[in-house]
Design goal:
13% helix, single chain, membrane, mainly beta, AOC barrel-like, apoplast, secreted
Length: 197
């Protein structure tokens, strides 16, 4: 019987060792390259989804000694625009349970609005409703949508939330309750319908 050359066995052992090491490295790299994994909702302790209706009033104060909405940028062409196209404002408006400013506070509306229409007063709203009262204290809802200010009812989407509103989606309906043509201060009634866990 012919014998294998002496140096064949170490070479074969080296090749098998290299293949094993490379296989382990591939497994290791695959593990670190994967930045996601699918989870069961039970893993996050998500229970049955529910629909919640929130009702509150939004106090937009643009004049006086303590405005809650202030213009932070204007376009050069804004002076000639009847719609205020290009104006950007930041706001921190009070949310209350009733229409009066002295009504019980339930939170704040914090974010940015921008006049985004040439043909009418239409705002791009990027807001967080930050709740400070009751069951939803510390939770937030995020709004991203269009607000055609002089329409009787405006509808804007809820695009997310935090706290008890994690995974939230839904819509907010806005109706102007009062608008002072001299001061331009407004109280807006909101009905918000949100699906969440």
């Amino acid at each position: 019987m012919a014998r294998a050359p002496q140096n064949t066995i170490p070479t074969l052992t080296t090749i098998i060792s290299l293949i094993t090491i490379l296989s382990l490295m591939n497994l290791s790299v695959a593990h670190y390259d994967q930045y996601y994994k699918n989870l069961s909702p039970k893993k996050l302790e998500l229970k049955q989804e529910k629909l919640t209706h929130l009702h509150f009033y939004f106090h937009d104060i643009v004049s006086g000694p303590k405005p809650t909405a202030v213009v932070v940028a204007t376009a050069k062409s804004t002076n000639s625009s009847s719609t205020g196209f290009g104006i950007v404002a930041v706001l921190d408006d009070l949310l209350t349970g009733g229409p009066e400013p002295t009504s019980k506070p339930v939170g704040r509306a914090q974010g940015i609005t921008s006049s985004a229409s040439h043909s009418e007063i239409g705002l791009l709203m990027v807001l967080n409703y930050v709740f400070t009262e009751g069951k939803y204290n510390g939770s937030t809802l995020s709004i991203l949508g269009r607000n055609a200010v002089f329409s009787a009812v405006r509808e804007m989407p809820i695009v997310g939330g935090s706290g008890l509103f994690r995974f939230a989606r839904g819509y907010a309906q806005a109706r102007t309750h009062t608008f002072n043509t001299t001061t331009r201060n407004a109280v807006v009634e909101y009905n918000v319908y949100v699906l969440h866990y």
